[in-house]
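Bench notes, afternoon.
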Amino acid sequence: MNIDIDKIAKSDTPQEVLDVYRRVKRFFVDDPDRRTWKEIREKNWKAAYPLDTEKEGIWTEDEKAAMVKKGQIPIGVNDLAKGVQGSCAVVTSKSPGLNFSPIGESDLYVSELLKRGWDYVNSRNGGPITYFDWVKECKLSGLGLLEAKHDPSKGIFGKIVINTIDPTTYYFDKKSTLRDHSDVNFGKAHLVTKKYALETYDGLTEDDLIFNEISPDEADKEATDDYKFGKDNYALSEGKQADLPAENKDETEENVWEIEDWELAKVKELWLMIQSQEKPGEFDRKIFKTYAEIEEAGWSVDKAKNIALRETRGVIQDPMTGEPVQIMDTVQAVIWPRRVEKRIQRIIVGKKLISKEENPLGVDGDGEPILPIIALSHDATLSGYPTGPVTRAYEISRSRNKRRMQSIYVVSRNIEAPIVMSAGCKWVKDEEHGDWIQVSKDSPFPPNRLVPGTTSAELVNMEQRDKEDISDEFDMSDVIRGKIPAGQTNMAGRTVLALQEMVGVMSQPFTLSVESAMERLGKSVASLMIKIWPKSMWLRLIEPGEMGTWQPDQDKQVGPDGQPVQPEPSEIQQKWMDAIARIMGEDGKEPISMIDIDIKIIAGSTQPTNRMMKKSEAMEMVKAGIYTPEIALEYVDDPLRDKAIESLKQQQQMAMQQEMMKQAQKGAGQ
C-alpha cells in the first residue's frame, strides 16, 4: 500500500484534497506503530477465533511440527475467547439507559420524546448485540469503533444506523491524549473498486480517478506484462486507459481510495449574547466571524468592542385611545470573542472532493462538535496505539497450553513407563510363560517400574496459576462467572454480592469509559433524530392512549385528599404537541438544537445484576422497616418493577378510599 504525494501534487488535485492525502499517508499508510498494532490485532483474532485450527490459533505451524516431533500433542485450550466473551457480557448485558434533559427549561415532554426516540433507534439496531461486538473488538485489539449515521436507502425517511467499524480502516493522530480522539484529526480510509466508486457517487467520472503525472517507477513498470494497474492504491494513471483491465477487474480490484476525513480546526468567533425576552435570565445567541458582520446585521459596536446596541421598532396599544402606537426600543447585547473547535468533514474519492461540511451534527451544550464516530480505547501505550487484555493474556495462554501438553506427555509416558533395574539384571524371553527379569544375587535393589512423581502435580499447579492469571487479565473471577470459589459452598448471599462489587471496582475504569462513549453515541443519535426525522416519526413515539393521559412524574399533582389529580386530556395533548413543535421549530418557535440538551447515562445501566441475591437482601431491609416495598423493587432491578409499583399504588389508594368511607360512615352514624 503506497501513496505518492509528489505525483498527486503534480496533478490538478485541489489543495485541500492533497492535505487529506498527506494525513492519510502519515497516519495510515506509513506509520510503523500502526502496522505493529495491526499485526498484533490479527494475531489476537486468529488466536481467539481461529477459522482453521490447523493453521491458526496460538501455535504457528513450525511450533506444531516441533511439538509433534517431540511426541507432544499441540492442543489449544481457548481461554482467550471465553475471557473476551465473559468480560464483554458483563459490560453489555443490558441495553444502556440514557436520560435526555433540556437545559434552561422544564419541558419534560421534549425529554421524554428524545428518550423514546433513543430507545426506538437502539432497538432497531440490535441493542446489546451491537455493543457486544464493539466491546469485543476493543478487548481484542484495544480499539473499538461505533458509527451513527443516516442511511437514506432504508425506509421511507431513511434509517438512523448504529454499526461497528473495522478499526483497520481508521486513522488518527497518535498525539491524542483522549480516549475518543476528539483532540486530534482522524478519519476512515480504505480501497474500493472503480465500479463501486462510479456507481455510489453521483457526478464522479473516470477522470476523477486518473492522475496526470506518472512517476518514473510506474513508467518502467508499464513495460512488464504482469503489471497490475492501479496498484499505486490511490487512483488510475493517465496513459494506461487503453490497457485497462477487463470489466470484471473493475468490479473486483480495489485500487481507488475512499476517504472520510474529520479535520479539527480552531477558529475565532464572535458570540452576540442577547437577553431573552421570553425567558428572563437566559440568553439568545447569534454567531458572527467579524465585527463588520455584526454591524452589517444592524448592530452598532462600541469602541471597546464589548457591547453591541440595536434600535428596534415595536408597536403597543395606547391604553387611553386603544390605537396602536409605534415605539423605539434599544436592545443591548454582550460581545463574547471565542476560539472554538470545528470539525470539517470531507468525503474524497480518487482526487475529487465529494462533499465538505462543517460540524454536520452540530455542537453539544459545552460547544464541542458532536462526532458520529465513537472511539473506545482500552489501555493507552507510549506508542499512541492502544492495547487490550487479549494481548497481555496471549503469552499466558500459550504458557498454560504448554503446561497442559507437558502434563499429557508425562502421563502418557508413565502409563508405559520404563522399568528401572540394576546392571546385574537382564530380560529373559519366554514365549511359553512370558518375558521375565533375571535378578542377580548382588543386585542393590529389585527391578521396579518408574511411577509418576511430583512433576505432574507441579505442572498441574503451574497450569492452574496460568488460568487464574488469564482470569485476572479479563477481570473475570469465579464469582463473576457464576462459580462458587473452592471451599466456599456455604457462602452467604451478602458475601457473594460483596465479592461481585469488589470485582466490579477492578473493572470500573473500563466500564466508565464505555458509559462515557455511550453518552457520546446518544448525542450523535439525538442530533440525527432532530435533524432528519419528520413530524410523523415523533408522533409514532406516542401511544394512542398516552396522548391525553401520560404525564411525567414531576408533572403529576396530588389533591388535598392525597389522591392524584387527573389532568384534562386536552392539556396533556397540547403539551405533547408543543413539545413536537419545539423540536420541529413550528408555530414560530426556535428549533431545538443539541446545545440545549444534556445527556446522561443511567449509572451502571449496561451491567448485569444478581437479582436473586439482591431480592433476598431487599426483603430483609423491608422487614427491618428501612425500605418501603417501592424502594425495594427499585433496588432489585426487577423487570416487572414498574407494573408492581403501579399495583402497589393502586392497592394503597383503594385502602385509603376504604378508610375514608369507614370514617364517613362513622360520622354519619353519630
